[in-house]
Structure of WD40 repeat-like protein:
Amino acid sequence: MSANQRPYLVLQPSVSTTKVITTTTTTTTYAPIPLPSLPPPLSPKDPKLYPLLDAPLPQSLRHFPLVFPNGTHATFRDGDVPEEEVESEYVGGSGWKMVRKEDQGENTTVVGLSEAVERFGKKRALNTESLMEGVEVTGGLSSSVPPPRKKARGTALPHISTSNGAAPPSPLPSPHGSPPPETIWPSAPPSGASSPSPQAPLQPDLALTTLLALPNLVSHFANLPPQLQSHFLLTLLRHSSLPVLRTLYSVLTPTLARDFITLLPPELVSHVLSYLPFSTLARASCVSKAWRAIIDSDAVLWRDLLKSTKIWFGGDSEDAFAHSIYSRRRRELMLNPRPTKSLPLPHPYKILFKSRHLTRTRWVNNPEPKHVSFPAHGSSVVTCLIFSHGRIISASDDHSIKVYSPATGEELLQLKGHEGGVWALAASKDTLVSGSTDRTVRIWDLNTGKCTHIFGGHTSTVRCLAIVKPEWVDVEYEGGIVKKEKWPKRPLIVTGSRDHSLRVWTLPREGEPEYRSYNPDDHESDPAEDAEENPYHRLHLEGHEHAVRALAARGRTLVSGSYDCTVRIWDIITGKDKWVLVGHTQKVYSVVLDLPRQQACSGSMDGTVRVWNLQNGECQHTLSGHTSLVGLLGLSPSHLVSAAADSTLRIWDPDSGELKHTLAAHTGAITCFQHDEFKVLSGSDGNLKMWNIRDGTVVRDLLTGITGVWQVVFEGRWCVAASNRQDTTVLDVWDFGTDEDEDWVGEPPNGIYDDEEFSDEEEEDDEGAYKIKRLIEVKRDEEDEEQEQADVDAMDQDLVPSESESLEIIEMGGSQDD
């Protein structure tokens, strides 16, 4: 209740019956009785010390009825009860009515209850009008009241105040400065002639005297010490019934509630929330915007949740994911600035937790994922299959590369240009790199399908390639000094060929000049000479004595495996051959690079997998168990997986070399597989299986009864497989997500993201960069020369006379001769 508002009592009209000759019923209405207002709390007026001062009261405490001993009915109304919440009551009688304040006219006079009582105590009029003093008359009376036989003397109304004897004696001393008692009315109520003894409108009782004495009680209470105040209130509560306690509870609970999440220090909030499961956190983030901002942005909370649910894999993959999210946001912020009052974006660890939680549950618990199947590449073998930025990209030995939509299976692009089978693919954003048996490396724009660059240099099939993206790596200098540096400075391409060599190229940026090498059909040209003239060519790595079958590269480190039974470690910035790793007895078919552990792994036709130390070139572990060619290797933060022609897959601990599980359910050689920290998908003759990588059990069969599976890839919610069915190549696409998983962000299989933006300032000042800048200048000069020549041709065209001008010249010449 506001300080300037006072509670009041609304009395129901009183009815008195006087029987002389005729019976006259008089109804008297009374103006509301204003009750004394409550004193404000003692200073200081700190809202935190008086939380209930402005607390809204329930309707049952703001507007309730009272019945006095003489049967008079009244209604208590708190001062802040809106008019619309009070039911409008029409009060009136024959020839009169009660007038509301808003209905009063300019000449209408309204008399309050006290004044009406005073007038009735003094005037002894015999007509009806005197009986209705203070009430607006709405019409003339049809009959008059006869004079009384005897005049009665009015009896004075007892004085009613806060100190009335009916009030219970207060046990508290009267404080200094207490407000004086207030009188409701000064004199007797109205009395008619020859009427019985006048009656007061109401007879005071404990309820009324309590309301009148309430200001004094509050003043007494405010001057008590806090301990006595508490004792006094508890004594009252002990004597309160259950309905009263429930009403008080409904007022106290919302007022005294405290949002501890927003009040506690962030460290304590994070500690408290760490005890909640993910499902509870998800519901808690929907309570309010403040809770959502606190929960979503708490990196420690989500990191601990990743660890407690055993989906934290060391930190390197998690940091890479976070850097990718931040880079993506910076790029989006440049295009579309966010509103200033928008909620803070969730920490990448929360997005990562949701991604891994969905990956762990949806792939197992979704019994019927969406499935699309469509033909591709006729009956040719799919040699390469990748999933990049929502695109399915497949290459075949039919010389073509095709791009499909995973949602519909629609063919978006067909990239033509290679004159031989395509055996190597890699993508970065909207750029695709391919290697072919036609000995060339081609760069494609995935937005337009245009081939922008053709690199020649290899003299045999380009069998493997990789795009090396800049990342922070440890670089050791002389004296054992190790520094964190970003290498390479800009993305590179590394290619391996059957010509026994590897080459390093600069990945062209958008807008840089196109370059096309020699014509492969021109057998008189030398590919090596063409590579030397190519400004994008950086290094030619020679050393292997047989075909390069596999490679892997990160930072400054390149590992290559060859049919010469060796594995070599290179520095792709300087071209230095750091280590020649000898140990395999037959051809090396697969390699992986484990840069965080400073080791590389290789699989060979000798049936073994070897783990090599990159710092000293020694073989740390020889993993035996396969009985045939180990043609495929895969590495994740916690698992090394090998697949062999003996129809089995084996899961190893990359730290200790311990065999964890042997996956044996296929009947033929493993032709393809991919894995992450939760599952393994493997293809062989006749079926495509999903395994649980943590216990080695089969989860489900995705494909059965087919001729063979060429390739399989997955990322996030998507899985794509290329298979052969009745001499037809088919692509199958599964979507394991639901309609609620639109923000499911998948992790790439190799843990390398391409969301980073690279500026020219980061590029090293070397010969390769100089050649590209020189090419840009040459292209610009050629364009200027072409434009200049076009301008000259236009001027020459203007100088050539038209046919009519030629006739005029001839006529003028003829007249001069005359």
Residues 552 and 613 are 15 Å apart (CA to CA). Residues 87-91, 123-195 have pLDDT under 50 and may be disordered. The two ends are 120 Å apart (CA to CA).
